[in-house]
Design goal:
Strand order of the largest sheet: 1-4-5-8
Strand content: 5-15%
CATH superfamily of the largest domain: Butyryl-CoA Dehydrogenase, subunit A, domain 3
Bound molecules: flavin-adenine dinucleotide
Order of helices and strands: HHHHHHEHEEHEEEEEHEEHHHH
Radius of gyration: 21 Å
Oligomer: single chain
Helix content: 40-55%
Length: 402
């Protein structure tokens, strides 16, 4: 075993940290208030290879492995505790990878280079109005082949990046049933551009946090796509979705580490200097003991998350692990990371006293932002527990049947 970072990993971390400290952190409050990520930040991220960094270099990606992708996610979480930029990053890193790996040459030529250069957005559209956890039961979206086109009808909801896709252009990898009689073996993925596409009607929702990236939905009414917008093989969409979700969950873990550390650092600075009853707050056991607990929690999530990234790298590069191993490791990270991050932010808000409840500090943006991860983005906490149970007991123990 070796817990040290390589020189390349250290250099990558320092480069991303320095970039994010200078170019992202000073703008986080404005991003939260103005509800958009400035174009110059996107450009800077593109130059550093931070947009869909896991995509192939042939299409402008950085071709980084998952450990490197997590390092960048951690640094972006540290720089933007509201988690808007980290969410944009992790959605593109995970689903941009799926697009890069399975998308047709024509679709990638049209969109992927624009995604990696920050000119277009790439998102994911799985959730439907009747439910996100039980997508097999809830999914109504249908895609039917007609001559050389695909015709899509249905509705997706709670989708990140609606405004971004409309303003910048880009695609949402969209799950649709192509063979309704085949259960999970009857789904396919399509690249659906929202901007200027006939038959698309979008809506927006008002979130409580991560305000820099929009959430909404879209209805597809006879949306006609060229056949090359099918992602990968017909009826393999569910498997691609599970592959992308695992990656996204590990990256969520990494962004939570950075955001948790930023919160804890803010808290430590405060409890070392703020005095009560004639002593620094940090000298009271009532403050120190939770500090020790939160520090241990963050370190444990680091181990879970980077082990998950390591397993992914071993699976993709050496075929040493399976998608089941990755799903289990990713679910463990996603189950712990947002809960611990929320808990440390909540604690630090207490330490800050009344200013913790004001917009003086970034902590309130963190509390609002991180809750999106535990409520549902990329899978709820109970879905993580179901995945862990499935991997420990076997799929015949799934609560909803096999
Ligand atoms: C900010 C945000 C951004 C999002 N972005 C996207 C996106 O870009 N693309 C996308 O496709 N989706 C996105 N989602 C949707 C997300 O994937 C879903 O919210 C999630 O899958 C849960 O679905 P649901 O909201 O319909 O809740 P439901 O599935 O209705 O679940 C409600 C509750 O019931 C629990 N539950 C369900 N089944 C079980 C069970 N068998 N046992 C125990 N408990 C259970 C769940 O854990 C949850 O607590 C986003 C969500 C949020 C909050």
């Amino acid at each position: 075993m070796d817990f040290s970072w390589s020189e390349e990993q250290e250099l990558w971390r320092q480069t991303v940290r320095e970039f994010a400290r200078k170019n992202i952190t000073p703008h986080v409050r404005d991003i939260d208030s103005n509800r958009k990520i400035p174009k110059q930040i996107m450009k800077g991220m593109a130059q550093l290879g931070l947009l869909a960094p896991t995509a192939s270099q042939d299409y402008g990606g950085a071709g980084v492995d998952w450990t490197m992708a997590c390092i960048a996610a951690e640094e972006l979480g540290r720089a933007d505790i509201s988690l808007a930029i980290p969410v944009m990053y992790l959605v593109e890193a995970s689903w941009g990878y799926i697009f890069s790996k399975y998308g047709s040459e024509e679709a990638k030529e049209e969109y992927l280079k624009r995604i990696t250069s920050g000119e277009a957005f790439s998102g994911i559209a799985v959730t439907e109005p009747e439910g996100g956890s039980d997508i097999l039961g809830a999914a109504k979206t249908r895609a039917i082949k007609k001559d050389k086109s695909w015709i899509l009808n249905g509705e997706k909801i709670f989708i990140s990046g609606i405004t971004e896709s409309l303003n910048w252009g880009g695609i949402h990898l969209t799950l649709a049933r192509t063979d309704p009689n085949k259960g999970h073996k009857g789904f396919s993925f399509f690249a659906v551009p929202l901007k200027n596409t006939k038959g698309i009607k979008t809506t927006l929702l008002e979130d409580m946090g991560r305000m820099g990236i929009s959430t909404g939905g879209f209805v597809m009414n006879d949306v006609t796509l060229p056949e090359q917008y099918l992602i990968g093989e017909l009826n393999k969409g569910f498997y691609y979705a599970m592959e992308g979700f695992s990656a996204a969950r590990v990256l969520i873990g990494a962004t939570c580490i950075g955001a948790s550390e930023a919160a804890l650092e803010l808290g430590i600075d405060h409890i070392k200097t703020r005095k009560a009853f004639g002593r620094a707050l940090g000298s009271f056991e009532g403050i120190q003991f939770p500090l020790a607990e939160h520090y241990c929690n963050i370190e444990s999530v680091k181990l879970l998350t980077y082990r998950a990234a390591w397993i992914m790298d071993k699976m993709y590069n050496e075929q040493k692990y399976t998608h089941h191993d990755v799903a289990l490791a990713a679910a463990m990270s996603k189950l712990r990371a947002p809960i611990y991050a929320f808990s440390v932010m909540n604690e630090v808000a207490d330490w800050l006293g009344a200013t913790g409840y004001t917009k003086e500090y970034s902590i309130e943006m963190g509390i609002r932002g991180v809750r999106s991860y535990s409520i549902g983005a990329e899978g709820t906490m109970n879905i993580m527990r179901i995945i862990i149970g499935r991997e420990l007991l076997g799929k015949e123990f799934l609560p909803y049947g096999t």
